[in-house]
Model the fold of this input.
Amino acid sequence: MFTQGARLVWRRICAFLLRATFIDRRALSPAQRPQIVFLDVPRLDDARDAFGDSYPDAVFVRLGSRLKLSEVAAIKHADVIVSTGGMAYKDLNSTAARIEMWHASGAVKKIANYSYKDATCEHVICSPSEGLRASYADAFGTSIDHVVATGVPKTDAFFDKDAMAALREQFFCRYPELVSQQLFVYLPTFRGSWPHQTYFEPQLDPVELGNQLELNESFLVKLHPIVSESQWLKEGTSTNPSIKDMHGEKVSTLLAVADVVILDYSSILFDSVLLGKSTVMFAEDLEEYVQDRGLAFDLHTDLPFPLVESTTPELLLSTIRAESVRGEVRPELLKFVEQFVGSCDGHAHVRVKSLIDYYSGTGTGSSKRETSL
Done:
């Protein structure tokens, strides 16, 4: 005889199985099942932002979150899975065509995903340039034949002058006190282990940094979205109004308004150079970071702009100010753009969409799906 508690547990199990069966049967209906699933990394919406309008019937899933039954069914029966964080959920679907649209615009930190190493399904890795195809093949554990230089869809907006101007206008409507300011925008990446043990507490003295700012200068800071709080930033914003926390603003907006962009090991570096922004690399923990995470290239020799390793606010600010008045475009910057983001030309969305349509059969003309039928 079951106890009352055991009967309750059994009823819940039966209800779960019935719901799962119903969802799976409905998902198997060609008229209703989602053929395309997009996977976004935690706290970023790159896939949704890039393709939400193009594929209104697709399912968008957040990597790392607890899956809903409907999401399990969608992944299980998808024809195409587009991911921004590696080949996830192979246990649910190992046969769908996979398209990897890595969430970063390029690689400053070494990518060591390797999730496609044993993939037997059709798969394509999207690279930001022809020159990085071999590096991306190695990073994801596949052959170079599976890597296509499509560019990165989220960078397309950088080539739309009207859209960027609109971002600037909207920003200054929200912050009219910043209209006449020199805006130094600091966009650091996280430290620690993704995704649950991350932090950001640099050695740079935030109080002294604020004291060193001129009256017409503002230091805008947006931390990596995975970092929930920073005592460093709290101390800076509480002691000087010229240091501002911009956590509610999108990176694209801050890049649009920046006079100088300050970065460390963030792939936003590539977004900044595509926009032609004056850029300074601030890497106070470079040696430690290289040992811990590894970098895709040598910051001392391969960067087309200044590198600051000192924690002295005076040196950092003097370097930033020098870059803010630099007018000429360095030849090495053009070479850097071609090597690392040469396929980011405003048409990446079209190229990636053509891959999705090819493998799903949703576009015009021949498709992989039609060929296999």
